[in-house]
Sequence to fold (171 residues):
Amino acid sequence: MRNPTALLAAVGLAALLIGCSKPAAKTENAEAPEASEAAEVQEVSQDDKLKMLASLPAPYNAADMENGKRKFALCRSCHTLAEGGPNMTGPNLYGIFGHKAGTHEGYAYSDALKAAGYVWDGANLDQWIADPKTMLPGNKMTFLGIKDAKDRSDIIAYLMVETGAAKPDND
Fold:
């Protein structure tokens, strides 16, 4: 080993980066599959994703899925999308649409979100993504928001397709 200090610094940096994306600890009630099980989930074809996009209500049916995917990268450090995926700093978002806010099992929500009383839909999620602190004061999400309405619409359409809110039309 030529430079043990540099090696130790690299290992420390790697541990820090891994810790930033480390899933939250499982609770007794959480039943997330192991990573190998989640990897076995069959991937939806691109054609099916386009059919799902087309089946969404306006304005989401005209969204730019690639832009939504790119913009969702801002969210990936805290959220997973896979069915049965782990909670991280934020909850897993699979099945979020039609789900009452603050109730995803195994995630420790703020009192404000637990008491919010609304169901996640495109309009609520649009307000949330724009500025979570203004939409619901007292929540613990530190995200500053996305100001561009088209970017938010693209993210929401991407989430609808990727989290099971849209189903392919298999005609």
Summary: The domain at 43-162 is CATH 1.10.760.10 (Cytochrome Bc1 Complex; Chain D, domain 2). The chain has one domain: 43-162. The two ends are 62 Å apart (CA to CA).
